Amino acid sequence: GSVLDQSLESLLHRLRGLCDNMEPETFLDHEMVFLLKGQQASPFVLRARRSMDKSGMPWHLRYLGQPEIGDKNRHALVRNCVDIATSDNLTDFLVEMGFRMDHEFVAKGHVFRKGIMKIVVYKIFRILMPGNTESIEPLSLSYLVELNVVAPAGQDVVSDDMRNFAEQLKPLVHLEKIDPKRLM
After folding, report:
1. pLDDT by residue (tens digit) across 82-114?
2. Is the pLDDT of residue 64 over 90?
3. Rounded to whole angstroms, how far apart are CA atoms 83 and 106?
4. How far apart, in whole angstroms, are the C-alpha atoms of residue 35 and residue 56?
5. Where exactly are the transmembrane stretches of this chain (predicted)?
6. Are 57 and 26 in contact (CB under 8 A)?
7. Contact 78, 4 (CB under 8 A)
8. CATH number for position 47
9. Is residue 114 within 8 Å of 20, Cβ to Cβ?
10. Which of 55, 84, 100, 119 lies at 20 to 30 Å from 40 by C-alpha?
11. How far apart are CA 45 and CA 34, in angstroms?
């Protein structure tokens, strides 16, 4: 979902009341999306992300699998996810492996937790000069809102918990399952 800039404080206030009793974390991350094109129709995509506000933190490499074609009544998108911490030379390594950088952006926002759920509210910033994370501008006048859970396969009851939590955020934000094929 998304929320306009002027409604951000209302959403953050509601999330503080609904989520676990701890102050939300803030983050400022630089993310680069790398593609490896092969014989298959769609390229292999990896995401490299690093913290810009916490020095000494490792790069994170993330692979997000294709969404499972499953029960249409399932309330959440389900896909495999592999997320690993890496060394500082990750981007050089990916280029040497044959990947090319497709795009990059800066994400700035807040992370809330409710049990095993993670709620992320963030704004995406366009990088004006490639590689220069100091020169950025907001991509839109709204913040993205994501609700996600890392769970073992077959834990479909988790999607019901996610739907119930999303209902509590209405009418500030309408969280919905996105069909990635619709976006292409």
Report:
1. 999 999 999 999 999 999 999 999 999 999 999
2. no
3. 19
4. 26
5. none
6. no
7. no
8. 2.40.320.10
9. yes
10. 84
11. 6
